[in-house]
Amino acid sequence: MGKKLFGRRDLILLAVFLLIGGAALLFQLARPAAAGGVAEVSVDGELVAALPLSEDGEMVIEGYGGGENTLVIRDGEADIVAATCPDGVCVRHRPVSREGESIICLPNRVVVTIRGGKEAAVDGVA
Ligand SMILES: [Zn+2]
């Protein structure tokens, strides 16, 4: 999984993103990202959690202004499955699993970003 794959895959990803619907299956086949990836969760610009994609789990993110987003880690992918925001854009977003991909909930100021390929130390937020 060298970095040189990134450029081309990035373009493919972009195409997938634009085509979404039927391309979802292709995306699945394209193999989830590095096992060492983490889903970084930030609220209003502050990192509040970093969940390893290798461990299935669920987290309720307390967003800005009392909103909540439910983040699920499953099969190496991070997905927001429920949220209190009015637009629901984050819930409709496909799961993310690759370096640099993110799910953003504007109303709750929640950003989930994938950081892959490195086993970054996960520090609690003081
Ligand atoms: Zn949202």
The average pLDDT is: 84
**Tally of alpha and pi helices:** 3
- Distinct small molecules: zinc ion
Helix content: 10-25%
The CATH superfamily of the domain at 32-115 appears as N-utilization substance G protein NusG, insert domain
CATH topology of the domain at 32-115: mini-chromosome maintenance (MCM) complex, domain 2
The overall strand count is 7
Task: List low-pLDDT spans.
Answer: none
Structural class: alpha+beta
Radius of gyration (Å): 14 Å
Largest sheet, described in full?
4 strands, antiparallel
Order of helices and strands: HHEEEEEHEE
Q: Report the end-to-end length measured between terminal Cα atoms.
A: 34 Å
Strand order of the largest sheet: 2-1-7-6
Q: Could you outline the blueprint of secondary structure elements for this entry?
A:
Elements: H1 5-19, H2 24-29, E1 38-43, E2 46-52, E3 57-62, E4 68-74, E5 77-83, H3 89-92, E6 102-105, E7 110-115
Antiparallel strand pairs: 1-2, 1-7, 3-4, 4-5, 6-7
Bound molecules: zinc ion.
Summarize it:
Helix content is 20%, strand content 34%. It is an alpha+beta fold. The protein has a domain at 32-115: mini-chromosome maintenance (MCM) complex, domain 2, CATH 2.60.320.
Keywords for this structure?
single chain; 126 residues; alpha+beta; mini-chromosome maintenance (MCM) complex, domain 2; 4-stranded antiparallel β-sheet; 3-stranded antiparallel β-sheet; binds zinc ion
